[in-house]
Design a protein that fits this description.
With about 55 residues, this protein is mainly α. About 70% of the residues lie in helices and about 0% in strands. It has 2 helices and no strands. The longest helix has 26 residues. The protein is rod-shaped.
């Protein structure tokens, strides 16, 4: 379902319809996509703050 992160609503609908509303797959689909963006932004911020450590 991570590959379908561009289609968040579709990924959630498929996970819920296949595995049920109370399943771990539906929860992972929702939480995974919601956590993915802040983690990527944090990694970019860390890379920008430490770029002076590395030679060009």
């Amino acid at each position: 379902m991570i590959g379908a992160s561009n289609f968040f609503e579709l990924a959630v609908a498929v996970a819920i319809s296949l595995f049920g509303l109370n399943s771990g797959a539906a929860l992972a689909t929702v939480v995974g996509v919601l956590v993915e963006v802040p983690v990527m932004l944090a990694l970019v911020a860390i890379a920008n703050k430490t770029k002076h450590w590395f030679a060009k």
